[in-house]
DNA sequence: CTACTTGCAAACTTTTTGCTTGCGA
DNA sequence: TCGCAAGCAAAAAGTTTGCAAGTAG
């Protein structure tokens, strides 16, 4: 499944006229492979063995490219750095308030919320974000 | 209502053993008065007439105090600075993707989501956050 | 009185930018 | 070849910290 997802993603980039490079390929495939919604720093550390000279700017640049093409979503949390999620199916996140881990979960779509919110606020609503916060299994055990 | 809310808040701070200062009072009452979920910079600009020497550090310090005592909530969004919300009733936010404005809306509690998420992820869930994104009325007209 | 607050500036973190060199198509 | 991409370092932007001086209780 991951292999197919990579092919689809590569096709999407090609169609958008985005040039492929080893670094770009590595970042993308790492994102698709992991389920951990890594930060820029985690990506950087994971790939520095293969690309000792790669700079963080390259990672940021590529993440923006992926975001523009619609291959990844940026998750932002107050204190910490952004995390990047290459799972583009509609889903939600459970965020650990202790260690920052992010885990996906699925739930029936909340389209009705968007409608209600639009009515209540006068906004033209186009998307929504739902997250639950708490302790992940690891942190629960350790505490 | 705002006046009572201020009294309640002051009492809460007193009970927590927090000393009152003119700056602290001004920041708190500004937060309770406004509905606009201001950023630190907005608070700073609003109060610089009354407190020409007040530094942003003072605002950050006080916001942390208020947060610790449970008087305000910090809202964080990727690109921009944090916003601070002194409405502690359970409610949700509509965020303008163009100008960053944040408007409250109410919706039946999503307690069920927390349960489902806990079951699906193994997290011990303690809270959730729901936001809708789109264009606010002003930005809709201008575009 | 004295511990908590303020004000100020410097430090820190994360992300962006400018510019030169390199490389994919 | 030609322009996009990478690497690097410096700059932004937001937030935090350390310390001296002031003040609430």
From TrEMBL, chains A, B:
Zn(2+) binds at residues 96, 99, 136, 139. SUPFAM superfamilies: Winged helix' DNA-binding domain. Keywords: Cytoplasm, DNA-binding, Iron, Manganese, Metal-binding, Repressor, Transcription, Transcription regulation, Zinc. Fe cation binds at residue 128. GO terms for cellular component: cytoplasm. It is found in: Cytoplasm. Its cofactor is Mn(2+); Fe(2+); Zn(2+). It comes from the Bacteria. Signal peptide: none annotated. Belongs to the Fur family. This is Fur family transcriptional regulator, peroxide stress response regulator. It comes from Aneurinibacillus thermoaerophilus.
